[in-house]
Amino acid sequence: MFMQLLFGLSALLTLSGAIAVLVTKNIMHACIFLLASLIGIAGLYATLGADFVAVTQIMVYVGGIVILMIFAVMLTGGKDFVSRAQNLLGLAPSMGNKWTYTVGLLVSLVFLLTNVKLISSIVKSHPAKTFGNEFPSTVNQLGHLLIKDHVLAFELSSVLLLGALVGAAMIARPRKQ
Amino acid sequence: MNQTVVSYLSQYEFYDHLLAFFGNNQGLLSFVIYMIFILIIVTMCATIGGLGTYAERKISADLQQRVGPNRVGPYGLLQFLADGVKMMTKEDIMPFTADKFLFYLAPLLALVGVFSTLAVLPFSSGFALADLNVGVFYLIAISSLVGVAVFLGGYASNSKWSMLGGMRGASQIISYEIPVTLSVLAITLLAGGMSFGTIVGQQKGLPFNWFIFHNPFAFLAFFVFFTGALAETNRAPFDLPEAESELVSGYHTEYTGMRFGFFALAEYIEVFVVCGVAAALFLGGSSLPFNISFDILPLQLLEFIIFMTKTLLLYYVVIWIRWTLPRLRVDQLMSICWKYLTPMAILNLVGCSIWIVVFNGKSIAELIFGGH
Amino acid sequence: MIPAKFDGLMPVVILMAVAVLLFLGGHFVSVLLAPKKPSHLKSTPYECGEQPVGSAWSMFNVRFYVVGLIFIIFDVESVLMFPVASIFKEMNEMGHGGYALIVFLSFISILIEGIAYCWKKGDLDWVKSYQVSLKQNNK
What we know:
The complex is a heterotrimer.
Chain A: H1 2-23, H2 27-47, H3 51-76, H4 88-91, H5 98-125, H6 139-149, H7 151-172
Chain B: H1 5-9, H2 13-21, H3 26-63, H4 79-88, H5 100-117, H6 135-142, H7 145-157, H8 160-191, H9 196-201, H10 216-232, H11 257-282, H12 297-322, H13 330-358, H14 364-369
Chain C: H1 9-33, H2 62-93, H3 97-120, H4 129-138
Helix pairs in contact in C: 2-3
């Protein structure tokens, strides 16, 4: 009962947030709707019993990425926060003509079908779990996997993050004259 | 392990009677029990938050050789109620240039962020609302909502003072989250788990079993944690986001009445939560000395009192610090975080991990006195 | 003991609901009690009594963005370290302490490398060295 309620609330938050991001014309509001959507996704993880992933979602996305996006918006500042697009076509990125739109539609159709094929095979082989209502600790399992089976990935992710840090610092540094 | 109020109460006989009363509906009964405890805890925390404003003024008055509030009630004790009534009867003003939606949303986000942290606070071994497996981690993550709220409060007002305060606040809160998280990691290493039940359970016994005295690195980690946590709650000397002598009132300059009240309430409850977390992580939390563990109700109350005593003592220290130290400059704030606290926190983390392997997880006291 | 079924997330959700209810209730009371005499001058943003000049939504310095970027990297690193840290003691008791220590320390050493780089290049300074040198050049 409670889990179904939590799932319903999270799904509602995720979907309505995502739709609101698309519909709203104010970029700061879009950031906040995205925040709502991301919290909803954390709730979805929680209903699946993945407590660590749910909290990571909040920690990294809500506490980090959204704030970074807000800072990025404040970098541009100014009065151009509100898009002046009048209709739906105006909202779409204005970088194409009929041909590009047709090709884009075809590509996305193929992509969609491939995904449906992939997902259907997964669903068939692993029937959807009913809500177990249990919270076994996923943290210890994750820790053991990280330190034993996937130790190389663990270390390499650190190197990747170092690269990201150096790259971020480089880009943000203005060129010396 | 993973004790909650419901699983604690379910040991007793009256739980079965209650269950029968609710038609054997486990979910409904848990909901009712949680609801009652949450209402008690929220009321208590709101009162502590209110008394916090009173204590703040009274202690500052003491430190400055003034009298402080003394009109409303005995010793001015009811001052916070008078303040609350005043806030409710104040006119609600919103700048006409403001972003209305975000202006409404910001105090709500602050409240939600702070209230959610109360769920894992270990008031006693039986009376914690929820002992999540990811306890401390959850607490750090969910309290970052406050950073977003502070920024939004500043942004939505569309006033220059608010905007500056909001930007400073958001960058300060995220920066200081790093040393705090790394210090918590050191404790996670020592305790072997993130849940408050595990962490507090390992510190039973006399004060030298507390994690603060576990090893020199943990001792340092406490101060790093406490400084970082002070900065995360925007308390002086880190109150740059609301620096009243330069930014008027910072991110809540344009807020009046109840909405300002919500920001203030969220801030004072957050200070309480932070003190509680510091007490639970480093100072033994609610654990009783001499490893007494009769699972009876009075002992739970005793544990609760011990926890509250430690927390409120730390609360006093927070206020004391506020009225002793002058405010930092922005550049000093950032250099303290990134050049002093973060390297120190990393050092503590490395030190704790090496200590565990070299001394097999024993604390200094265990090494000196031997055995368990 | 009851099963762990209904433990866990329920108080979190209820607390969030209580926060929302408190917010709405506070607003309701304030609407009932508070006076309502709006005027244009009252609702101008506060600028020390002067007429406000322009909007507050202006371009902000890039340094906030840099702080955000560095924060996210450290955040993700600490998230990755949490599961390993919580089984570290267990590994040590099982006799794999040395191995766990090497894995853990090599992860942290790369983190230290990152912070050392940023420190050396001056990205951790609030007042950047090149800004200072530019100002001196202008003089």
